[in-house]
Amino acid sequence: MLIDTHCHLDAAEFEADRDAVHAAALAGGVERIVVPAVAVDGFQKAKTVVERYPGCVAAYGIHPLYVMQAKEADLAVLRDWLAKETPVAVGEVGLDGYVTDVDPGCQEFFFVEQLKLAREFDLPVLLHVRRAVDQILKHLRRIRVRGGIAHAFNGSRQQADQFIKLGFKLGFGGAMTFSGSTRIRALAAELPLDAIVLETDAPDIPPAWLGGGRNTPGELPRIAAVLAELRGVDVAHIAAATTASARTILSGL
Length: 253
Prior knowledge:
This protein is of the alpha/beta class. It contains nine helices and eight strands.
């Protein structure tokens, strides 16, 4: 069994063939798929998808790249969804230091407020940490939550250790499959295995063999095989360990 801890199965890229994409993932042994919403106007779509497809579970949050379209009132909407639904986490939330057209102060406001909601509801968080690891760690030390996942982790070993100390797992996926991703591959090989979870971020971050094409949750078995090769163990061991890690950190898996 494998768990895809981060997959946007609700995305428009899957509108034409979502049934087939989900069926292929199940056939490959991906029995759980975490679907994180990215904006309040997508909450219902995420809910509809997870209710339709067996093994799918939802997380709700406002993504840092969508905060410029968000209103402060959206936080009250999110709070209502967290109260009435049974999400596995608050997410996808965080900070993004790569983009230039999203106000950093606005990102920070929504991130902090969503951390407070995660603490209020005692939920883990799914973190977007692109070029913002130190800033995110600063807020996590101040607003303690029950852990979560640093999605698509690409920080240093020291930063990884800080996340682990705060009760977080680190998400590895398509980026790990590129031979040139030396830092990510070194982390995947050397970090404690119980700190690692697998993800696709489909339809984004496609693995090397897709040549930049659309990613799907059905690629997770091959991603797991890459991690097994990097660590010198069999893929069944990777599947069991990463599944256990995901279940440890996310409610309801």
